[in-house]
Amino acid sequence: MADSENPTASTNGTGSANPTASANGTDSGISRRRLLGTAGATGLALGAVGATAGYATASSNSSESAAALTSLGSGRVMFHGKHQPGITTPMQARGHLIAFDLAPGAGRKEAAALMRRWSATARRLMAGEAPGGSDTDIARDAGPSSLTLTFGFGHSFFSRTGLEKQRPTALDPLPDFFSDHLDKARSNGDLWVQIGADDALVAFNALRAVQRDAGEAARVRWQMNGFNRSPGATSHPMTSRNLMGQIDGTDNPKPSDHDFDQRIFVPASGDPSWMAGGSYAVVRRIRMLLDDWEKLTTKAQEDVIGRRKSDGAPLTGGTETTKPDLEKTGADGNLVIPINAHARISRPDQNGGAAMVRRPFSYHDGIGHDGVPDAGLLFVCWQADPLRGFVPVQRKLDRGDALSDFIRHESSGLFAVPGGAAEGEYVGQALLEAH
């Protein structure tokens, strides 16, 4: 899982925060979470030591004056735009994935009301404001922390809402794969929400707000929690590592690529029209068999992946970004990169140019009575068409990837993620209010 089609990559490989705009309060110029005085607004930043490092502090008389936030807390991603946030946003340190099923009797009207509520809540939270209605103050002292909320619709959503004619063909169920050991209770769903933030409390606050907003309209089907390396944890920006210790995500497509949009987003002329600017998310819970993996020598692990563990460079030499020489042989006459190495099988030029943006989270759900960790990857990938993105790559991996002996796909979902909401609109409005 360390190469270009590896399901463990970051968008930019740095894991850095993405303060795309300054935080703007809405109440007398100061939001409830006291965002005036952020590092971006004042030019000041707190250090990593001292009683006030990393958060804003309220005065004893409860005034709205506050210390400056660190750059981590002040990072803000915009809710409104052509595309939903959380797709090209740099990977965040904390994440939650949650799927809902509409409640019995709930249909299109209830779904539209729910998407209005979720969109309004997302806009406020991403700006560093308190959610509407009751607030438990979980994230009271924090800034936006690069929070994103992303919403999608599953295959079953369209029959539940009477919108079958609007269901995209690209949303047809994924085929069965040899490596699948899927738990249906933790797969699919009518509605899906991806939450990411660089602060755990900010992320959890968003998760609780989304669940509260669901009210009587939808019920939780499954929910998963994940994490990544925290921004600033390394001496310089670098590609992250996964729980197998491999540098992971070397050749993930980048927004600067000339064909990025056509590979990742549905064009304005696409079908159906309500998906213009949207994308399709494949979500897989991939358990890593870490006990088996850790029994291998470093050399054996590198042969499975086809890259050096130390720096991510291909076994044929160079640096992390050097193109692997798939024909190179060693002194023994054997291929330097084994025929079944993950790096060889997952290369885009070995899969008809199939491309997808992988934005996963690692997960650890405890250690069983047998001492085996339940840990691995919450794999999320984005593409304009999963039949040209995820499916051909996964089929190829199914047919002989050496990594398959050390992972197990335990849940799966595919969701249509519409384009971003314009000012004054909510996510999915073009679908839910279509005549």
Automatic annotation (TrEMBL):
Reaction catalysis annotation: heme b + 2 H(+) = protoporphyrin IX + Fe(2+)
Main location as per UniProt: other
GO molecular function, one term: peroxidase activity
Matches recorded under PROSITE patterns: DYP_PEROXIDASE (PS51404), TAT (PS51318)
Domain Dyp-type peroxidase N-terminal: 84-228
Record InterPro entries: Dimeric_a/b-barrel (IPR011008), Dyp_perox_C (IPR048328), Dyp_perox_N (IPR048327), Dyp_peroxidase (IPR006314), EfeB/EfeN (IPR006313), TAT_signal (IPR006311)
Catalytic class of the enzyme: oxidoreductase
Cofactor binding notes: Binds 1 heme b (iron(II)-protoporphyrin IX) group non-covalently per subunit.
Enzyme nomenclature, EC number: 1.11.1.-
Cofactor(s) listed: heme b
Feature: compositional bias, Polar residues: 1-29, 228-243
Annotated family: Belongs to the DyP-type peroxidase family.
Function per UniProt: Involved in the recovery of exogenous heme iron. Extracts iron from heme while preserving the protoporphyrin ring intact.
UniProt name for this protein: Deferrochelatase
UniProt source species: Streptomyces antnestii
Organism phylogeny: Bacteria, Bacillati, Actinomycetota, Actinomycetes, Kitasatosporales
